[in-house]
Amino acid sequence: MIDSRISLAHGNGGRFMRELIEELFAAHLGNPGLDVQADAVRIALPPGDVMFTTDGFTVQPLEFPGGNIGSLAVHGTVNDLSVSGADPLYLSLNVFIEEGLEVALLERVIRAVAAAAEEASVRVVAGDTKVVRRGEAAGLYLATTGIGVRPAGLELGLGRIGAGDRLLVSGPVGDHGTAVMLAREEFGMRGDLASDAASVHPLTRAVRDLPGLRFMRDPTRGGLATVAHEICRATGLGLRLDETAIPVRDPVRSVCEILGYDPMYLACEGRVVAAVAADRADEALARWRALPSGRDAAIIGEVRAEAPRVVLHTELGGQRILEELEDDPLPRIC
Amino acid sequence: MIDSRISLAHGNGGRFMRELIEELFAAHLGNPGLDVQADAVRIALPPGDVMFTTDGFTVQPLEFPGGNIGSLAVHGTVNDLSVSGADPLYLSLNVFIEEGLEVALLERVIRAVAAAAEEASVRVVAGDTKVVRRGEAAGLYLATTGIGVRPAGLELGLGRIGAGDRLLVSGPVGDHGTAVMLAREEFGMRGDLASDAASVHPLTRAVRDLPGLRFMRDPTRGGLATVAHEICRATGLGLRLDETAIPVRDPVRSVCEILGYDPMYLACEGRVVAAVAADRADEALARWRALPSGRDAAIIGEVRAEAPRVVLHTELGGQRILEELEDDPLPRIC
Question: Which of A116, A179, A202, B228 has the least C-beta neighbours within 10 A?
């Protein structure tokens, strides 16, 4: 039986590590593809273009309203595959565990990995565990690497965006950043906000075959403003965003006003930003709004043949330049 | 220009992070497949069975004779693919960096990643960077995830091992563990030992088509003794090892005697253990010995229809049971 707290011996390649892997990881993630005895696992891939991505997770606290680092690690990589146009299929999971971590917490995280993977129809087929000294790793870091397959010939990318294209977002921005921030004791605030962390695969699958779809991205670290900057930098074009059109939940707006944050820069973990040809924007919007996760989708801006900067047109008729993020307002959000 | 030390802002998704990625990671790892702007990258795969694996790296110190955490992270995952019978093709790289790490050290590590990847003919096509607070991550943790392709129908595994099969090792054991140990100031010893860390792909490719090849594994954490235990546990058979046949370098033996370590349990990072049908063992040995990295290869034992334990037959005619590793003699070795 494994103890109630993780010790360094759980990472040494011997009996304790084997028991931890068998009783915890394999028990929850177990599937025909997860062979904890093998050095590498064989994966079957359907026809199409094979897509590959990876992401690391160091969120603090490890658990927050709407999820934990485990579900976040699955959603994050599932979403990177999804916005590339792929169907996510397989994940690997790296776990860096701090000596002394409660096994019960680790188990909640691994359960959340399993639940999020099942919901997104991906399988965790490879993994590795390292245990590090007390004081390192802030409890737990994760990394997930994903493989998916997208329809052959589907081409999406920043380079395909042109002047006149419309920008859409699939739902309210800033929920994840705000929920994690409120879960930190340092802020002394509690709200009923939950992270938006979820698979965006239903959203991306709904529009990926739409002619005129140029590019999709999930606005995580640095939020919507950072995706907007990436578009300007890659295209050399300007971007006009309409502040009144950008969906922001009231509690997110209130918390941001009190604490001095700008929701444009806060991370989402279950939203998609898409650039779509002007004459297809309404159809993309309709497809998203037909889905539960897209019912608050909106057309929020337009790419313009102007200097490459992000201009926010405000409610009162003014203009505000959204600068590129420098200092991080909210570190360790994912 | 990036500063001389990593700050938290290098991990926030904004300008500092972009500059770090462009000036350091992309500059060294840059290749047609590494698109630092994309959420996921398309990879081309030749025909065959697709193999997938992942590993995390927390070695201390970060640099040691014969390598650093970067080269180790490439070799480790290349080797897990290789012993499965595959040709390693693609890697992803996760980097967890401690705030305050010297950029010069990080650059040496990334250069080593690039050099080891080139040597092994794999391409680093996806990556992610996280910066964590001072005091966490002991400077740097890495994770690498690999994709390879092996000849269709090639089947290797613990389950294929039977009584009478011979066990081979491709070279001396314990070099990596000893070299890293000596690099720790706490031991106050210096030697001319270097880690054996290297790609084992030439070794595995040389024998993977040999009829009678049952199983290959690289003896990393827990060393040769741990692979031996894995064979006994999976097969329910006994394993007899011949101590005089197991290659151990003299300086490794000396250091182990002085400090009280057993080289059977020390990590290798560039060796292969193989189980081969008795009538093919000589041919496997000859193929390995024809390679520079296999010139000290040896047949070291035999699987026997006995109780599932590892019995070491010693130089003096005695027998010693090699127990399963419990406490880790040398943590943070990989």
Answer: A202
